[in-house]
Amino acid sequence: MEAMSLFFLAILMMGLSVNAQLQTKFYSSSCPKAEAIVRSTVESHFNNDPTVAPGLLRLHFHDCFVQGCDGSVLIAGSSAERNALPNLGLRGFEAIDDAKAQLEALCPGVVSCADILALAARDAVDLSDGPSWSVPTGRRDGRVSLSSQVTTLPSPLDSVDVQRQKFAAKGLDDHDLVTLVGAHTIGQTDCSFVSYRLYNFTATGNPDPTISRSFLTQLQTLCPKGGDGSKRVSLDKDSQTSFDVSFFKNVRDGNAVLESDQRLWGDAETRRIVHNYAGNIRGLLGIRFDFEFSKAMAKMSSIEVKTGTQGEIRKICSKFN
Q: How far is residue 100's CA from residue 35's CA, in Å, rounded to a whole number?
């Protein structure tokens, strides 16, 4: 236990230096219950529907990759980010709105929606048996949200080189890329994002040869040819609700659901990182992933943040002031 305490103390200290403009316990004086309210709200929604956890994690990721971590993905409107094609399946908005309403009642005009989203993503992972970490706060909300700018998000069709370029553009390296993609240990996707791999990969009329034979049969049963493209498939076939390293074992064994995930095994550098994580489900390798994921999330959540007098503190997360 002492070793584990030191382990996560390191994560805490690490969070302090991720971005000098952000601070741990930023709301300790202005709204001391801010983090506790976000946590209790996420927990309430999670208890009602555990699938909100990957939803909140993905929501934060999509926010940070467009305009930085500024809550711009939360804005409603026909031309806003959340209505761009890559964002149409995003979930978790209700949990963020719920937390914001409670915080506005207690500390009006103090806690940003961007910070609520960063905290909620952390709490969602923790509730899914994953790690917790210190989230530096002090982000302010952006005043721009345009669907036309949603061009920088990684796609399930991306090669490793394209994924690498998109992550590098945000200051994230190969290690961050593989580690953050490990978030797919929880969550689901639609059959429509998988079927082409099963029946007509690269217009050959054949399945993707990198899918293991046994898993191909499973996927074809879940997503029959000509079937319902909106049917959901777990991204981690072994432990879809538990935040662990089984996702990396799946990539290693040809059992990844998304093409972009499986491609990580075909690149020498990303394969090395996947191999380092893929091992026993619990034990030292699992702990290492917990540590590295915490570090990568703290790094990602500081992308292009707005602080000080930049942006605003929204009263309602889905509307500019």
A: 11
The answer to whether 88 touches 59, Cβ cutoff 8 Å, is: no
Is 62 a residue of the active site?
Answer: yes
Binding residue positions for Ca(2+): 63, 66, 68, 70, 72, 81, 185, 236, 244
Name the CATH topology of 160-280.
Peroxidase; domain 2 (1.10.420)
Catalytic residue among 60, 62, 175, 275: 62
Annotated binding site for heme b: 184
Binding residues for substrate: 154
What is the CATH T-level fold of the domain 27-153+310-320, as seen in this structure? Peroxidase; domain 1 (1.10.520)
Per-residue pLDDT of the chain (321 residues; tens, 9 = 90+): 444 444 444 444 444 345 668 999 999 999 999 999 999 999 999 999 999 999 999 999 999 999 999 999 999 999 999 999 999 889 999 999 999 999 999 999 999 999 999 999 999 999 999 999 999 999 999 999 999 999 889 999 999 999 999 999 999 999 999 999 999 999 999 999 999 999 999 999 999 999 999 999 999 999 999 999 999 999 999 888 889 999 999 999 999 999 999 999 999 999 999 999 997 555 556 669 999 999 999 999 999 999 999 999 999 999 999
Paired residues of 205 in beta bridges: none
Picking from 41, 142, 143, the residue whose alpha carbon sits closest to that of residue 94 is 41
Global pTM reads 0.90
For residue 44, give the H/E element and its range. Answer: helix 34-48
